[in-house]
Amino acid sequence: MLNELKEQVFRANMDLMKHGLVILTFGNVSGIDRSKGILAIKPSGVSYEKMRAPDMVLVDLEGKVVEGKWSPSSDTPTHIALYKAFPGVGGIAHAHSEYATAFAQAAKEIPCLGTTHADHFNGPVPVTRFLSAKEVKADYEARTGVIIVERFARLEPLETPAVLIAGHGPICWGRTPAEAVRNNVALERVAKMAIMTALANPTVKDLPTYLLRKHFLRKHGPRAYYGQSEPSIPKTRSPKK
Amino acid sequence: MLNELKEQVFRANMDLMKHGLVILTFGNVSGIDRSKGILAIKPSGVSYEKMRAPDMVLVDLEGKVVEGKWSPSSDTPTHIALYKAFPGVGGIAHAHSEYATAFAQAAKEIPCLGTTHADHFNGPVPVTRFLSAKEVKADYEARTGVIIVERFARLEPLETPAVLIAGHGPICWGRTPAEAVRNNVALERVAKMAIMTALANPTVKDLPTYLLRKHFLRKHGPRAYYGQSEPSIPKTRSPKK
Amino acid sequence: MLNELKEQVFRANMDLMKHGLVILTFGNVSGIDRSKGILAIKPSGVSYEKMRAPDMVLVDLEGKVVEGKWSPSSDTPTHIALYKAFPGVGGIAHAHSEYATAFAQAAKEIPCLGTTHADHFNGPVPVTRFLSAKEVKADYEARTGVIIVERFARLEPLETPAVLIAGHGPICWGRTPAEAVRNNVALERVAKMAIMTALANPTVKDLPTYLLRKHFLRKHGPRAYYGQSEPSIPKTRSPKK
Amino acid sequence: MLNELKEQVFRANMDLMKHGLVILTFGNVSGIDRSKGILAIKPSGVSYEKMRAPDMVLVDLEGKVVEGKWSPSSDTPTHIALYKAFPGVGGIAHAHSEYATAFAQAAKEIPCLGTTHADHFNGPVPVTRFLSAKEVKADYEARTGVIIVERFARLEPLETPAVLIAGHGPICWGRTPAEAVRNNVALERVAKMAIMTALANPTVKDLPTYLLRKHFLRKHGPRAYYGQSEPSIPKTRSPKK
After folding, report:
1. pTM of the model
2. Probe site for chain B from A105, A128, A130 (most B CB atoms < 10 A)
């Protein structure tokens, strides 16, 4: 059932490992089939060496396991909360990657200091508030989803496809599981460069907004002209054919 | 004799190398057979390229070599002291991994700044005092074990399965040699992130205690629900089956 | 058409990846055939795994695609501006490599702190000014070329074969695409060491000018005696034959 | 001629690359046959990919090439000066490895902050003075050797088998080319940890001298008991056989 989705989610999980974002059994990626309301997600605590596509667990939006011999990732309720709140999202990746996690632990948003950031995130990468003791006790993983959604009250999820959970680490998403992983790769690079930039210049200022918008839009806007697949690029525009 | 234990210890030593925690001939892992009172440990100063499972040296709890053509690790007396004091420990790993060693050299405990830390260590990773000149002269490696045990007077070794020896480096342990190595991998990641977190926010505060406990217990407590093997998870709890 | 140039440019792009300077689809290298006035450049947004030499796009100095099924890199107008202004340049590499980009984001030139730097760059690596909102709107990528050329008004491009675009990242060049990539490799190492040097000594001073010149000239001057190919080394000079 | 020495020197050069200490064509290792007064050294500016053992150049102690089709490393006069001044040295390695070079650029000695350092260097790793403009002009590479020897006026070269050339980088040595490379590997690790230690504790103090001596001597002293080959270990000493 949903073998194609399981395969995509499996590959995205392996890419998370391949890019050096996870160690041991940390990290998880999921993907959703919106028509069926079912997500495929990494099993909990299974090693990357032994994991195969059929090991992905199928779960419905109430958190009930639909298929699979393993328990799903313990972060499954967080994924579900995001799929419910962000309709355009098709894949979610969570890794304790070093530098993005450092910002999450610091409870500091990642400022937009350059065009690498702007190529992926249309503004600073936001950080949630800390959960209260009461929320942790009530339903920890689901409430983690709640504070992320709360933080995005005035943000467009697909324009800022990442968040830092205070004291925990980043969660990234995208239209597909593969895109979620790519956003995590970019986030980690951007976080590391932000720390090194501050070492090179402790009084560095944010990238001017007009440069931020330009880079985000040349890659993601309706008239994007980065990459190959956007049909909206006018043929007369040099250097595109 | 004890070939299965030697194999486990050999693999754990190779994993220490594979995870980038050691260079040259640094580092050593041991494992114990409690019923026989014998430990298997890496030979001293032998290169990882040439080492094989039969090269592991068998030593009793008085430090006498029981079997093996090589001299055991010069840190053997430290391992023995820990096995004697910590009955639940089945494996010990020692590596001069970069960031954990930086904290040991700094003689600073590693504060718990996030859930990655809390997933493995139920509080800050403690640091020993420095040995006195007299202690170093008397019996250096055994006394190193003594100050570790002294530091754990009010700590549960399997809840905080790592220590920093001041001016030296970390020692990690676990129920098995493999678990000791996994704890070293986690410790190194946690140490690096602690330094980067302080660069991102020099006034960062420790993770709230209720979050620290939650993460430690969801993975290690009697009602743990991370991973696959804990039988104590109630079947009704979503998203576990 | 120009298969040899495409092959060189393809290999240089792959080397950029191999040296860890790029992730995902970031980065691009081009090379020029001066006699034909045509450059070969990486296609936009194509993955390194799938890219082959015939995928390189041929573009003329007006930015018109001469051959190729893909759109050329969106940074093509920047490359063209540099080829037009710097006649000795045969290859250009652009990567968002971590530490050089940190300096670009910091809008700080990379000071010459040691002989590794002096072996490649005859002085500090300069940084451009920021583009104005008006310039970004008018013709972003071409104007990026303009501010680089502006910054080199009193610099010799082949003596300082790199620049930092403020808020963006480095661009390197050389007599060939391969040399442009080697300069990027050296720049990244030099940038990382500059940050670590400042951590080791926050009041570090620039390398004395006489040492800077000596190192640059022993490798690049008319009487260079580093490497094998310079014919100008006097035979009597020991230790060269 | 001297094929065995060439083979050793070749392998040591390749190990320098394998351990990530050099990039591009940076770095060089030599070894000496004391009975013949001839050293084998890496050719200048030749890539590691193409280099083979027969490419090593044989040079006498006056710097005259005895055999080889390539020019020897441009740093050959520095190597010769060290072989002449330090009779016990059999191999020399020079790499612009990142963190050791950062200290050299900072013109700061590497303090002994822990036992990893003490396992290899019997005290801080010293830094030379800067060469004067006059010395650079007169005979740069040979004078580099002179200031190293000057710095070791009151140091035993085989107890502190490394030096930092101010503004340049480290040079390491040992009884063999392989040992010189191992010392470079250890130096780089020690340098990186020194920087990270200062981040973890800006007011860190040097390792107590009694711990420094203990570690150096248990590995290198007449009664060393680290490793397998020292015959001086008393048989009665536990845990050695």
Report:
1. 0.93
2. A105
